[in-house]
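Protocol step 4 of 6.
Sequence for Response regulator (Bacillus mesophilus) entered exactly as in the expression construct, tag removed. Do not edit the line below.
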Amino acid sequence: MTKILIVDDEQIERDGLQLIIERNFPSIVVKQAKNGRIATEIVDEFQPDLVFMDIQMPGMTGLEAIEAIKYKNSQIKFIMATAFASFEYARLAMKLGVEDYIVKPAKASEIVDILGKVLSKIEAEKELVKRSKHQQYALQKAKSIFETDIVTQLIFDHVHEVQLEELVELLDIQATKEKYVMNLILPLGSEAYYSAIREKVRQTKSGWVGALYGRQLPIIVFLKPDQSFRSQATLLAREILKIAKTYEDCEWFIGIGNLYSSLEQIKQSYQESLIATRDTTIPAKFRFYDDVPPLVPGFDENLSKKNEQQFFNFVRNGQWDEIGNSFVDIIETLEKESTPLFQAQQRVMELFWIASQVLSEMGAIQDIPVYSLQATDYRQLRAETSHLLDRVRTSYEEYHAELGTDSIQLIKKYIIEHAHKDISLDTIGKEVGLSPIYISKIFKEQLGINYIHFLTECRIEKAKKLMRDPEKSLKEITYEVGYHDPNYFSKVFRRMCNVTPTEYRKQLIG
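Step 5 output, structure tokens:
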């Protein structure tokens, strides 16, 4: 709704002008002020789009009132009205950015004509602001999708370096040299908490929040120059856990991986953060990986942690022979060390816990396998372990068998058809019924590229086709193929095609 304020010390002038406006523009809301001082007071509350301002008024002149109003409300437009057709008034009015100038007494048709032109300008600017806000909203939404996908690809080692550079440029939080992963364990069905957690991390301007997979929410945190690793991680963990208290939910727990200096090592920090959540019963509700005590006293802790990292990779890559050998080796080592059977079973159970966490991320298994009884000797422990491992492997293989051989084709088809939209691994996963992590995995394994690279190729190919139409501007093409920033589109196009969109179009026309 457009609003107009009429400022004039003559009542008859104000009423006459209001009558003309209301007869010719019935949807406009009109308000009056009898002098400049009152006008400056009304503006803050009324927020007019346009002010008809008389120049000669007692106390504060119209020019002074315009200057005072524009100081706080630069977007308001003005039409000046005066009985004196002075060049000096016109010069000062133009200096203040006044839209037009009416000499009283003016004909109604003249007022309507001038007002119509200014109102058209106001509507055009409103539409531009509305479109800009929509584009900003779309860009922010796209950034959120990029952020979660970057985290997913980094912690599961499915990233493409070129695409990573492009995506990182779009995010508000810049990567610093040292970084680590926090893994937040939430109760099942905790999607309602996700926005609050993301907003809390954004307020700190220190990290990227990944997607929620089952109960796990990974966060890549960048170390701030003025903070130590432990103090920053502790502070952020406590801030996040305050959200749990708001919802009166005590089941949250945060595991914190070690600090690393390269993005390539972020996967290791993630694995450490997950292992740090092994025991969620401690009162602090967060734990650093280096503070996780060994389950078997006297056992080589460094070797144990190294084996866990290796085991992680075996499970993630589906290397079942190596997984089986890991169980055999650990039981053999424990037996040679004369480890009490209860502790040995706990240690082996820990490997099953790691396997179940990794497989649940991929959607292949939901429950943690448990021993049906306490083993009475190492022979029985080996037999029970073999039985549990067979169950886990069967669940994994059944899951993959259900997927069928055409899963990758379904994913490619969906991406091609929806490339112009803001689609993410999570979006694709819901569409084809697969885990986002599994999608990222099979894309990299079967096609040799990550899904974002394939999505980019689809968009660039569509852009090339649209460039054949000389009526379409590059800005229109940018939005039509799914990008929200023409500069970013130009950068991606140049990286993919070795020429800018403008240069490509010239070659095409030539």
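Step 6, annotate. The chain has a mean pLDDT of 82.
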